[in-house]
Write a structure and sequence with these properties.
By secondary structure, this protein is an all-beta fold. It has no helices and eleven strands.
Length: 120
Amino acid sequence: QVQLVESGGGLVQPGGSLRLSCVVSINIFSIFTVGWYRQAPGKQRELVAAITSGGSTNYADSVKGRFTISRDNAKNTVVLQMNSLKPEDTAVYYCNAYRMAGRGTTYDYWGQGTQVTVSS
């Protein structure tokens, strides 16, 4: 059974930093695209950042220049380094692992989420 275990959320003041980590229990982690999504109260879940198996990254415009995503295939881990945090970054952050296989088959796994609160 695939599990995604997130850690690193919490309460931080505006301008502060947090580091989110997600360990993914998949035998072939290296071929998955992994990323972080977030959902604020009353809003839809949105992509924050993702990194492909080849190391290409994609960021939401709202976090470019502040957040950095990275992966360690040897440790089945994806990390989101969040700097210069703003109150509008407050949300539940979810780790995601995704792969499109042959014949339209997709594998899409989610963590349980970790709360990030940016407030003074």
